[in-house]
């Protein structure tokens, strides 16, 4: 059984390493989660049980992989930040991506609430991106948090309209091209003050090492990082 | 909330595509499964419940991703083969790796037997390799199946010795440098005919599209592929 | 002078290797050669002195790098083919690309005809592509030779029109959207039988190891490779 | 002549782009220049005519490619630095490497002194490395300049010994493991004050945009960059 005769096939492996001294961001992202939410009858526009499961999975991921210094999550996505001088899995891309997304998925399934029977196994994809400076990493985090805000304001207004009697198509048409101010006004007319919406929906969730608690704060401002004595 | 101001950070994404017209192999591999087996008191040298969970997860993975034409699994690993002309996720490496390993992990956890409570979330890593010809792909599969045989013969003999009263250290020393013939003889003296061991342990498991049944056969011989009218 | 203190910067080097057992094609391509031809008053549509310099540079390149098995050139470009089992510079992409294009450029300048004084240093760029099978490599070569034919027929007709009194703009407009048959007819009316044009212009130039002579033949047909007992 | 039938082969091209907002260093390096120097009977330990040709080629390279902000050369190598926000050739690696090394080689040959007939075409290889911060780029430049000093001190001493009557083997053995101080002492005993050696030999050559003059200065100190109002 000449196993060694076949081992030359290992030479075809080409695992890239990420550039040293750059911030590594790993973002896991739910695949087809619109359908997942419908199938499992999750609440609109936000389902706290699902967000809590995401957060719990992210917290466990932060705990397991000590090279992660910060995580930011919103909706069905979570970004994990690895510090520039880390040699996490020797910075091998395939190893990092696959291990993080596998563990995160595993934690998500294990922590899924018992009272919502899983209809099928959920899937996440994952990408790895390098950022050469803290400023650009910071812009990345702002980008994801701006995305959270924009989507949440839209979705909150959209579902308020639908609960108020509009069809989904009518709600879409009503909101098309509207500014934030108009959306806030629509909500206000329905006795919803957007500012009073839960912070977790408006800001998403930040996990900062070594605290591992869930923060729902602006990471738009540099003093967030100074407060936590990290990164800068 | 100028989201677009931050969107330049997307320019840092660099997802490689795999070379067209090459066989793509994606291998998921249990991380620290020696410890996982111990923690969950799995049977030695093979635990059929764990293998069945691996097989079930692989079968579901084959079913979900129609570009997979064949899968081969043994121990805590599974290789999925994608045909050369596939445009699975536009052949983007990060997307392919992350999605497959995430779904596989999800299926593994969901199908884990209820009577063995999970102590912690299992993790798999994943690598993607391209093979430019069927011959080399074939050698890859032979390599994994040879690995299955070699490890299984060793482990079967090792645990027979331990069950016979040797310490693990003594068993290791007894087997060090021994040939297959010697191992077969040791087993024979303990009334074990290795040839009669279950095929699933000796050969691993092959899943061929579109049948999706579990085969425990030699893929060393070219007519295996001819029988299934595939690949060649 | 602690040189070693700085040597960590070597860790940032990331030279990719090309996939083993694939055909490597390295194509050098003249940069801004339209301007180069004008500045040096080269003949239209083909300048034999320039083509000879290209061929001589390619021949020397084939001679220096023994891993090259075939070269094909036309106009201001040359493709060099390296066999799949070669370990040329350990298949490192940057090393292969830079060395080949540097040597080719060097040979081009050294062999440039003395009677056409160089006005400035010519430049070539270079790309490396892997082809997983002989069939695809063959299509690559056919692609470049088809490109040679199409451009040469166009240029021959174009300059015949210009020499016949049309402005370049008029000649372009006359040829826009015409078939090969029409172009042949235009040439025929000006007493030019395209079939009698020199083979080097119509077919380009092939160099096959170990002969190193210049062939101006079709490489569209598989028996070309059989004749030279190579590649297949 | 269905050219389009073959154009699918373009899909196999995989030109990587370098990470945005990182310093790009392109280093050209003479191949087998020990032999090149011997064949052309160049002077030991430094041949000013050859260094001048290197410098002239680098100066022309800086002039042609406006994205280059600084170049540093010594011995048979030259490093070109491209600023982080450059979109030089869309940051495509193959394009950048091949074009720069081709033009540099072309300039080297064109500027080679007429009174030293070229025996064969010289070749340079080239590598591209990204540095995520100015500090690391700075360490890269210090590394190359430290290399210049160490090699020049060694070579100056080595050839002083050889000119003093030792064989090359004896000179090597004499210098093995010696400190800088010892080498300075050996030179001093032969009436050579290393400090008085030409700066171009001891420091190499820096070219800073937009001045394009040749500087032979320390780039070890940050105020070098401040003086030239560049980079930082």
TrEMBL record, chains A, B, C, D:
It comes from the Eukaryota. Mg(2+) 2 binds at residues 29, 76. Binds 2 magnesium ions per subunit. Residues 136-210 form the Thg1 C-terminal domain. One of its GO terms (biological process) is tRNA modification. It is an enzyme of class 2 (transferase). InterPro entries: Thg1_C_dom (IPR025845), tRNAHis_GuaTrfase_cat (IPR024956), tRNAHis_GuaTrfase_Thg1 (IPR007537), tRNAHis_GuaTrfase_Thg1_sf (IPR038469). Keywords: GTP-binding, Magnesium, Metal-binding, Nucleotide-binding, Nucleotidyltransferase, Transferase, tRNA processing. It catalyses: a 5'-end ribonucleotide-tRNA(His) + GTP + ATP + H2O = a 5'-end phospho-guanosine-ribonucleotide-tRNA(His) + AMP + 2 diphosphate + H(+). GO terms for molecular function: GTP binding; magnesium ion binding; tRNA guanylyltransferase activity. Its EC number is 2.7.7.79. Its cofactor is Mg(2+). GTP binds at residues 75-76. Mg(2+) 1 binds at residues 29-30, 76. Belongs to the tRNA(His) guanylyltransferase family. Adds a GMP to the 5'-end of tRNA(His) after transcription and RNase P cleavage. This is tRNA(His) guanylyltransferase.
